[in-house]
Design a protein that fits this description.
9% helix; mainly beta; single chain; two-stranded antiparallel ribbon; 7 strands
Length: 134
């Protein structure tokens, strides 16, 4: 079993050294993150996503699309339909302390925007709460 928790408790892939934990989204990215390159092995990467272990993959609500498991609940609309941020399968916690909860006007975000976008004179929330309350 190569499951491990990478940075920020995100899903990862354990290298042969049994110490290095590579973020799921860094597997099969053509960059060897494991010393022996096992994160880029042909048998692992030849038929994405079906060649990957299931714990590295999140299937979007549209079955045509998938993302790496560490991209689920990261605040970004990686699936294109927000299923990686809002669906019950994603099981995301509420917005973290660095995020503001609202209905974004940009398709990039789903239910939260980064607080760094608050009070920047640009509307990011449908309710304008990012400019007046946040």
């Amino acid at each position: 079993n190569r499951f491990c928790a990478a940075s920020d408790n995100r899903t990862g892939f354990l290298c042969d050294d049994r110490v290095t934990c590579v973020a799921a989204s860094h597997v099969c990215n053509r960059i060897r993150d494991c010393r022996s390159g096992e994160d880029e092995q042909e048998k692992l990467c030849d038929d994405l996503p079906s060649s990957l272990p299931g714990y590295l993959v999140f299937h979007c609500s549209n079955p045509v699309y998938w993302i790496y498991a560490d991209q689920r609940c990261d605040g970004m609309n990686d699936c294109g339909d927000c299923s990686d941020e809002t669906e019950s399968l994603a099981a995301c916690p509420p917005c973290g302390s660095e995020w503001w909860s609202c209905t974004p006007v940009l398709y990039e975000y789903c239910t939260c925007i980064p607080k760094r976008l608050c009070r920047d004179s640009i509307q990011h929330c449908a309710s304008w709460s990012d400019e007046y309350i946040c």
